[in-house]
Records
---
Amino acid sequence: MSQPISKEAIRKLALTQGFDLCAFTKPILSSEHRAQLDAWVSHGMHGEMGYMAEEVRLERRKEPESMLEGIQTVIALGMKHVPPPYSLEEGEDAKGSGAIAAYAHGDDYHDVMKKRLKAFARDLDTLLGPHDQRVYVDTAPVLEHALAERAGLGWQGKHTLTINREHGSYLMLGELFTTAEIEPDEPAEFHCGSCTACIDICPTRAIVAPFVVDARLCISYLTIEYRGFIPIGLRPMMGNRIYGCDDCQIVCPWNRKAEVIELDHLKPRDGNILPELAELFELDDEGFRERFRKSPIKRPGRAGLLRNVAIAMGNSGRGEHIPLLIKALNDSEPLIRGHAAWALARLCPDRQKGEIREALAYHSQHENDEEAGREFHLALKKIGESDS
Ligand code: SF4
Ligand code: SF4
């Protein structure tokens, strides 16, 4: 009779490869998680992440067992990251600076985790003998928070992220799917209780109900995934958040004890902690590529990031940004031109009204992008209204 596989031996391998958490489950989702996903997609809460709603992909997300022939086990893995090194107030008060989600302060965790997962997979082969296996990091078809919950790694908080009793929610998740049969762990118990801190603090009211985040309202989605003009009504609520948002995690009582940890590969880069908005806004394509090499912040591209920076400048109340915003009315990217126009109208101190109106009027005549043109029009209208 073959010996049962030692989970402790596997956990040890995971820790050796740089993971902090390792748990096991069957590749099956609960009916609750499936229903949650269906409802989220049918209400259009995935925004422009169209791949989430494609029928085939949606079905695959609901059936992790379809991701690998002969799959028996999902190994859910977690890696801690450094918590934000400032409080909610300190982050928001840093008006000339932009707030970046803590997980993105260092190198791109996807790359780091993928390397570790592959090394872990090789170690597993040696331990268990060859099995078919696949690794995933933040991959659309994998409902990773649901699998992590079933594996007991942590429960899904009301903000939908995974919370571990000991380590809180500053975690990055990855999965290894394998044909090896390993005894599942007990699912995680729910420990949010009656707390609603994350729901109450969300600047854009994106947590529309416990466990339901409407991506179309979520600053993480808007600043990273969304490629278009950000809805005007949401811009003032974004404050100085230029890449992601940690608010719902910062207020979570389970993160109170989150410790600052020493990390090798994911060490925060000083320049990514509350960087100056003006410095970022001056980046050209080459400068952007260089500044964010190997960083997740390159994801929205220069146009997306500078769009977010323009909004933060508009929300800063700081007139010193006006010259850079006027210069940006001539940028090659319509997204940047349009948001710069909005920011100018929002900042517009009385003594600079004439100068700003003139710049907007001049550039609006040469604007050939429809959406940017609309932004110029609205900005001029706003300044005009404040005259009367
Ligand atoms: S990340 Fe920010 S915007 Fe999104 S749900 Fe959390 S607090 Fe709200
Ligand atoms: S803030 Fe409260 S409700 Fe939200 S995830 Fe944390 S414990 Fe749960």
Note: The radius of gyration is 23 Å.
---
Amino acid sequence: MTQKTQVGLLFGGNSSEYEVSIVSGRNIYKAIDKEKFDVHPIWITNEGYFANEEESFKVLEDPTYQVQDPYKVNNISKLIELANLPELDVFFPIVHGNLGEDGSLQGLFRVLDKPFVGDDVLAAAVTMDKEFTKILAQRVGVPVADWISIKRPEYNDKTNAKLNYDVVSEKLGGDLFVKPSNQGSSVGVSHVTNAEEYKKALEEAFKYDDKVLVEETIHGSEVETAVLGNDDPIVAGVGEITNAKGSFYTYENKYDDDSTSKLQIPANLPEDIVETVRSNALKVYQITECSGMARIDSMLTEDGRVVLTEVNALPGFTNISMYPKLFEELGVSYTDLITRLIEAGIERYNHKKTLLHKHD
Ligand SMILES: Nc1ncnc2c1ncn2[C@@H]1O[C@H](COP(=O)(O)OP(=O)(O)O)[C@@H](O)[C@H]1O
Ligand SMILES: [Mg+2]
């Protein structure tokens, strides 16, 4: 019998998506193919500590479990101690937010010289930044909402024309979205239609980032697709988010128990629209050099335009999340999806090993 692959499953983290990550970790642990893999859970607590395997197993059994003794856990800077786990063959990070999704954790795995699931450093960093994503999407002809970006020093200069609602709405219209360039879960995102709201929205968004995007509002519905793989990626079908309460897909609509948002999978859309969503997604996946996985989100207007919103390098991964559901629709079960993602991470690592690094 061949030996099982030892998987280090990282979940939790101190982001707004902490609870989702715990549920994802728990679901992955339950569904992973136990014939092929042994799971070693590594729980990063909401306070940013990382727990030992024994504690980590407890939270997988019971998501409400808290660390009893804070001295039992280590500070997050000690994540470098992952180096002391040579028995692990591959890491599966399901940690959302800045640390998990922006290339930082991916950089650590590279330094540790271990394979890992999901996007590599460059793609994670680029897709975390909504402005870089838009610039690259435009490069391959994928439509994006027209925008301006405001950097902290510009914001600090209160005479800067970008802070003037009337000036900005001349370029983008008066119906605007304001958002941190690097964030997720709709945190710090506002919809504004007047000068007063614009001022407040900028203040809110600058709490989270040093760069804020102001976009024209795209009226329509939200459609998403999922991509899996490295050099020859598979693009799943299209799902649609329906019936979101209020003006847009807010944090509450995404996560609250009483949210009325529903995922319609597959979306009930004409074939040509589905194909546009899918082909745009593939172009964006490739130009941002994604590998492993990404969920690609767009707005669909009433006149049939598909406008890219963002790329999620680490999409929600509970067994009822859009990403796994879209693959289930294709006939790839949640268990098989986990296997394929791990295999893609190992394949990328093995390939990189074949590259020459010497300059002589
Ligand atoms: N330009 C836009 N036009 C219309 N709705 C938008 C626009 N930008 C964002 N939204 C709404 O705000 C939500 C969150 O914005 P998004 O850019 O996806 O950030 P996040 O990374 O926080 O999910 C979207 O799902 C959508 O409902
Ligand atoms: Mg989004």
Note: The chain has a mean pLDDT of 90.
